[in-house]
Amino acid sequence: MTKLAVAICLALSLLSGNGHAKKHEVLSFHGPFDDYDRTGLKRVIPKYKTFGDTVINENFIRLTPDRQSKRGGLFSDLYTNTPEFEAVFKFRIAGQGRKLYGDGMALWFTKEGVKQWHKGTELHGASSTFTGFGVIFDTFKNSERPHKDVSILVNDGTRSAEEMMSTAVGCDASVRYHEGRADFSVMHASRAKVTYKEGSLTLSLDAESNGEWETCATIDRLDLPADFDSKVYTGMSASTGALADNHDVLSLQVYSEVNELALLEESGHAAVAARPELSEIDELKHHVEHQFVAVYDHVKVTSEKLEKSEKADLKSLQDAFAPRIEELEQVTVAKLEAKLAKMEAEIANAANTLLEERISELERTLKSTLKRDVAMDVTKDVTRSTKAATDKSLNEMVAKLQKQEMQSQSRIQQLETLLESRFNAHLDRRLADLDGGNFTDEQLEHLTRAQTAWRTPFAILVIAMAAGCVGLNKFYSHLRKTHML
């Protein structure tokens, strides 16, 4: 009757809308995971980002496979900002190792969110520098320091990993499953419940996810900044080293009131049920998916090993045949160099022959051209020399003729003067001898003709000399034209 009353109250609460307001839908998730990215090839969880080796399958999220040196993470894009919240984290840590396995996984509530993933890897794949708290599920028992299977690490942003671990609180719990056991089932899982209210924290465990909660640790006052709960991101991370395990996340439910989860559990709500009732087909799908992922991972690892082995074999072959290959390379290079040298010599000889022939042809052409040019130059020089000599000879001849002409004119003038003076003197003497006697007209005419008779021969002589000068001038002009003077 009590359960019925609780169920009725819960139903009324849900119908009124308050139930949806109390649950952080954007921070909560559970399978099946049917959302895909834009390519349609990769499954995604809205408002969360995956990192590292994380793979989202249909019914579970695998942070790391059961392989060495793996690291995976899942962090929210949004945050809660309520003074109290409660979260139920359902997970499964399992592997083939019977005694040796590790390293573990963590559930984070911090102000850094995704930044914590990028800052470092020292705490199960995430950084130890953060503001908030984390629940650590450590499956590797380290003999060098005190060990707790489950512990709470608190950091105000200034503490180191060693300082946090030295004051960590927690408990031991069997939260790891051996997949080699005959009774192993993919329905095996564990749950952790985190209850935060006004600075206090309580961690409860349901190791076998059968609905039996046990308090693991309680912290009355967290050493955190006063505004811590104004912005709290959620996240999960896991890592493997020399030892490995499958670290799987099945669901996360976050509520803004601490009593909401209890009401849902009492009503048997499927979202928070320890072991939700599944049909045989759905349970078979879980098993097949788990086995398929294991086979796929095994094939992938085998392929990587084969590839690595092939590379090693190839390197061994290369190392073994390297001397022989080097020897063959040297012989081949030597032959090629000899052949190349021969070809170069032949090409050089052919080029030299062709060049010599071309040079000879150019020399012949040049000589012919030079001879022609020299002959022309010599002809021009001879012509110029002949012209110069002729000019000089003619100039000298003309000068001599001009000089002779001047001398002749001077001589003629002298003769003319002398003849005139002698004739006048002779005439005067004759006149004196005649002593002024009387002359007849015939005698006077005879005397007059005698006085002027000398002028006619003299005029003829002058005309002849002038004609000679004119002829000489024409002859000089003819010579200038014919000898290109």
Automatic annotation (TrEMBL):
<dbReference type="GO" id="GO:0005789">
    <property type="term" value="C:endoplasmic reticulum membrane"/>
</dbReference>
<protein>
    <recommendedName>
        <fullName>L-type lectin-like domain-containing protein</fullName>
    </recommendedName>
</protein>
<keyword id="KW-0472">Membrane</keyword>
<keyword id="KW-1133">Transmembrane helix</keyword>
<dbReference type="InterPro" id="IPR051136">
    <property type="entry name" value="Intracellular_Lectin-GPT"/>
</dbReference>
<keyword id="KW-0175">Coiled coil</keyword>
<dbReference type="InterPro" id="IPR013320">
    <property type="entry name" value="ConA-like_dom_sf"/>
</dbReference>
<dbReference type="InterPro" id="IPR005052">
    <property type="entry name" value="Lectin_leg"/>
</dbReference>
<keyword id="KW-0812">Transmembrane</keyword>
<dbReference type="GO" id="GO:0030134">
    <property type="term" value="C:COPII-coated ER to Golgi transport vesicle"/>
</dbReference>
<keyword id="KW-0732">Signal</keyword>
<dbReference type="GO" id="GO:0006888">
    <property type="term" value="P:endoplasmic reticulum to Golgi vesicle-mediated transport"/>
</dbReference>
<dbReference type="GO" id="GO:0005793">
    <property type="term" value="C:endoplasmic reticulum-Golgi intermediate compartment"/>
</dbReference>
<dbReference type="GO" id="GO:0000139">
    <property type="term" value="C:Golgi membrane"/>
</dbReference>
<feature type="coiled-coil region">
    <location>
        <begin position="326"/>
        <end position="372"/>
    </location>
</feature>
<feature type="transmembrane region" description="Helical">
    <location>
        <begin position="458"/>
        <end position="476"/>
    </location>
</feature>
<dbReference type="Pfam" id="PF03388">
    <property type="entry name" value="Lectin_leg-like"/>
</dbReference>
<dbReference type="GO" id="GO:0005537">
    <property type="term" value="F:D-mannose binding"/>
</dbReference>
<feature type="signal peptide">
    <location>
        <begin position="1"/>
        <end position="21"/>
    </location>
</feature>
<feature type="domain" description="L-type lectin-like">
    <location>
        <begin position="21"/>
        <end position="257"/>
    </location>
</feature>
